[in-house]
Specification:
The protein is mainly α. The model has no long low-confidence stretch (mean pLDDT about 75). It contains 2 helices and 3 strands. The chain has a 3-stranded antiparallel sheet, with no helix packed on it. It is found in: Cytoplasm, Cytosol; Golgi apparatus membrane; Golgi apparatus, trans-Golgi network. It is a peripheral membrane protein. It comes from Cyprinus carpio carpio. Keywords: Coiled coil, Cytoplasm, Golgi apparatus, Membrane.
Length: about 120
């Protein structure tokens, strides 16, 4: 089998040694350079990689949004707890003052000077 390569257009002419061709035509085969094959694979890999990146990006965006909502909920809860804490502190101060007033008014809780009574 012999063949000529036309380097201008990348064609390869295949000449058959067998006489099985009835019309006597030669077959012209065109080959792609190897760079085109790898480019096609890169394009396919690039598309797949792009889809993976897009899916990862969507997943990360959803995760960020979920975390933002969680943070908002936690911030609201912290604010509510702070408010409740201030309210309870105020109530405790009022109750503490009330108890002090009751103790000072009662003779049971009066401080007694035991030395002066003994004499």
């Amino acid at each position: 089998m012999e063949g000529d390569v036309n380097e201008d257009d990348g064609t390869f002419t295949n000449i058959s040694l067998a006489d099985d061709s009835a019309d006597g035509e030669t077959t012209v085969l065109r080959f792609r350079p190897e760079e085109q094959y790898s480019t096609m694979n890169c394009e396919i890999d690039g598309e797949t990689e792009n889809q993976v990146e897009q899916e990862e990006k969507r997943r990360l965006i959803n995760q960020v949004l979920e975390l933002q909502h969680t943070l908002e909920d936690l911030s609201a809860r912290v604010d509510a707890v702070k408010e409740e804490n201030l309210k309870l502190k105020s109530e405790n101060q009022v109750l503490g003052q009330y108890i002090e007033n009751l103790m000072s008014a009662s003779s049971v809780f009066q401080t007694t000077d035991t030395k002066s009574k003994r004499k």
